[in-house]
Write a structure and sequence with these properties.
Layout lengths: L4 E5 L3 H12 L3 E5 L3 H10 L15 E4 L10 E4 L6 H8 L9 E3 L12 H8 L5 E5 L4 H5 L4 E7 L2 H11 L4 E6 L2 H24 L2 H22 L4 H4 L2 H10 L6 H10 L4 H5 L7 H16 L4 H10 L5 H9 L8
Parallel strand pairs: 1-2, 1-4, 2-3, 4-5, 5-6, 7-8
Antiparallel strand pairs: 6-7
């Protein structure tokens, strides 16, 4: 099983970076963008001036606005934001080549339905083979050809290996797995936890508090993912612990930068002002909270983030509430 022509739905920073990876891997790449100015810049200047400025793109990447232009692609990377994935896949459905796998690269929980991205994709494209790509991977670093390793999860192990081999480069290493729920749940929850870590940084609460939030947040992430059907060992890998450590440790993370602004006293509107890329954790936080309540899992840090974002509680009160929780066994 081999792939020759990759279509990338969504030309944000991550979609553009993945187009770079695929072009370096020797694949023909068509990058779909909603913004005409992005299409023009990619095709004429070989740069995504809106979402990834300053990074030269491979000349073999062709940008388009219409999803119909991806009809000849034998592999699709769906990189539309989580809350827009259903609409993007539904619009693409009439144009998908029969049998072409869909690799889900967005991280989040759909608001309202509380569905993971694999469930959304299964409803929008019932007959499509599905894989999930997740892991510690800042778009700018990947686009500039710095080393990164990710998880490529697919229930069909042969298909997963074929996709991994097709997109791998000397600096982009996909490790295969079969646990799709673990791969996508880790990516969805870590975005919410990154906001919490940003708040810790913004409030100047110190490295001890930062490490504690990452560790206890990882416990929340694992509990919820396992309750949804994931394997615990999946969450200890790149798509869980690896992604969590990265996104909770640098203001390069869009989600952590939002938390940083909130911790410094800005409103959510001020924290989001001027951002051209989506901070998935803002939209996913209420859905993660609702999903955890639905399956009966305690996620106090995620609960606190959702409450802050909804304006139900202030940052200082949320911190005080977390620190006053009853002492309990760590296990």
């Amino acid at each position: 099983m081999t792939f020759k022509h990759v279509g990338v739905i969504g030309a944000g920073a991550w979609g553009t970076a993945l187009a770079q990876v695929c072009a370096r891997a020797g694949l023909q790449v068509t990058l779909q963008a909603r913004e005409p100015e992005v299409v023009t810049a990619v095709n004429e200047r070989h740069e995504n001036v809106v979402f990834l400025p300053g990074v030269g793109l491979e000349p073999g990447i062709t940008a388009v606005t219409e999803l119909a232009a991806l009809a000849a692609c034998d592999l699709i990377l769906a990189v539309a934001p989580a809350q827009h994935l259903r609409a993007a896949l539904a619009a693409f459905a009439p144009h998908r080549q029969a049998g072409a796998p869909i690799v889900l690269c967005a991280k989040g929980v759909e608001q309202g339905t509380l569905k993971l991205m694999t469930e959304v994709a299964a409803e929008a494209l019932p007959d499509a083979p599905i894989a999930v790509l997740s892991g510690p991977s800042f778009a700018g670093e990947v686009a500039r050809n710095l080393p990164a390793a990710v998880t490529l999860a697919c229930a069909d192990e042969a298909l997963g290996r074929a996709i991994a081999e097709a997109i791998a480069t000397p600096t982009f290493r996909p490790y295969t797995a079969s646990d799709l729920i673990g791969a996508e749940a880790g990516g969805a929850v870590k975005n919410v936890l990154a906001i919490a870590c940003g708040v810790v940084e913004g409030k100047g609460l110190g490295r001890n508090a930062h490490a504690s939030v990452i560790t206890r947040g990882f416990a929340e992430l694992t509990r919820l993912a396992v309750a949804l059907g994931a394997k615990p060992e999946t969450l200890s890998g790149l798509c869980g612990l690896g992604d969590l450590v990265l996104t909770c440790s640098s203001p390069q993370s869009r989600n952590m930068s939002v938390g940083l602004a909130l911790g410094q006293g800005l409103t959510l509107e001020q924290a989001l002002a001027g951002k051209v890329s989506v901070a998935e954790g803002v939209a996913s936080a209420p859905a993660v909270r609702a999903l955890a309540r639905k399956v009966g899992v305690e996620v106090p840090i995620c609960e606190a983030v959702a409450a802050i974002l909804a304006g139900e509680i202030g940052v200082d009160a949320a911190i005080a509430r977390l620190l006053s929780r009853p002492l309990k066994s760590e296990a």
